[in-house]
Specification:
Blueprint lengths: L24 H13 L4 E7 L20 E6 L9 H10 L5 E3 L11 H10 L11 E8 L5 H13 L6 E2 L12 E5 L3 E5 L3 E2 L7 H9 L5 H4 L1 H14 L4 H5 L9 H12 L2 E8 L2 E8 L1 H14 L9
Parallel strand pairs: 1-2, 1-4, 2-3, 4-7, 4-8
Antiparallel strand pairs: 5-6, 6-7, 9-10
The protein binds guanosine-5'-diphosphate and magnesium ion (MG).
Amino acid sequence: MRLSSLLRFPYDFGGREVVHWFPGHMAKGIKQMRAKLTKVDCIVEVHDARIPLSGRNPFFKEYLGIKPHLLILNKMDLADLSHQNRITSQLRKQEVGKVIYTDCIQEENIKQVVPAIVERIKCNPRFHREENPEISIMVTGIPNVGKSSLVNSLRRIHLRKGKASRVGGEPGITRSVLYKIQVSENPLIYLFDTPGVLSPHIENVETGMKLALCGTILDHLVGEDIIADYLLYTLNNYPQHRYVQHYELERPCSDIETVLKKIAQRLGKTQKVKAITGTGDVNITIPNYSAAAYDFIRAFRKGDLGRVALD
Ligand SMILES: Nc1nc2c(ncn2[C@@H]2O[C@H](COP(=O)(O)OP(=O)(O)O)[C@@H](O)[C@H]2O)c(=O)[nH]1
Ligand SMILES: [Mg+2]
């Protein structure tokens, strides 16, 4: 099969609207975040390394250049990192001064985080404080990018040192950011135990689909059938054909129904339905498309379908 016949370009988003993907309660989170961030000396923003440009909340813009900021592109194990130079120069245009790629599962590059924070604070000319200040940092970012995992990794690394301790109960700090963990002695740096959750910035449907693929938008808001279709489109377009081997298909295919049918058969996910015919009811077995879509999406998110870069 010729590759060109696999490509459906551009992807037809079918006039979908982005607004429906925005859970209303997240707007409230921004208000709370703003209050928290005023108390923080360095913002550690976590984002998904597969979408280094898409979905970051523009809320940070008002802080960039004022507060030291560090961008952590996590899940590097799932990302095709061959585009790093292009990404870095584009992020620089967005005033992102420092980027670290991490993997919180294998704890890859986590040790670079605290030294980078120290460096960010030192090189920020507007950051004037008296001698030996206590520095507070907070991990923030959109859902499911690995904020909690990063906090846990930092905690594991730094609490193991014995001297590091967990402190809390400062007046004026809300309950959700009550606990702080010491992550550095000199300078004295504390990490707020609870990450700040931001809503993703969805400027168009394509961005929304990328965010959905990475699991940062609740699947049911977008629809798993649509996510699966966009995933297949993305993999063929990339091209990243690991799914062919993973599901023991014969060849790459651009038709989602055909692919899901084969995945369902391969996984033994079928369902019996009653069909009414002229001669009476018969039970027929059909592929369970939603179970197949579920598996397809989960396999991708686990990295079983190969690495990609979506931006
Ligand atoms: N492959 C991979 N998965 C990760 C990594 N970091 C976190 N995860 C997974 O991503 C999911 C969301 O992580 P979590 O820390 O809860 O994200 P949060 O919502 O931003 O706090 C979990 O299933 C984690 O196990 C990483 O570096 N690589
Ligand atoms: Mg979390």
